[in-house]
Design goal:
Layout: H1 2-74, H2 94-114, H3 118-131, H4 149-157
Helix pairs in contact: 2-3
Amino acid sequence: MADTVSSINSQVTETVANMNALLAAQGPATSFAMLDLALTQSLAATLQNMVQRQQQASLAAAAAVNAACARIVSARSAIPVPVPIPPVPVPPAGELVVPAALAAAQHAIELLKGLGSTAAAEALVAIAQAAAPGVPPAPPETPPAPASKAAKRGEAQS
């Protein structure tokens, strides 16, 4: 029985020695794992704080812009508001252009007649003839067309 007790004691001491060696070998790995976890948690908290600060800064900037816009809108301007320009009158349709122009020309010629000009009477007749319906105005004289380069070459060769 003494042998069995001594063999059990030797097995227990060997198991305890193996456990101590195992714990000693795993110690650095366990400590580095815990260190990594602590650093990761710290980094996550830092990033979360940075995001929170950025959101708060954005909110403060939006509030500042909103307040500035409200002050601009509520402030009275020292510069008077300009009056809108009236629209440009639409020219009369094609049928009304000639009689309106004839009336304006006759009025101008009447003013010239009052000054005693005989040229005014002649101008009145010319305007009346130009504005008469059905009589197209005389086409302007066109200068003769210039000779083409091929025609000039033919003259030079002969």
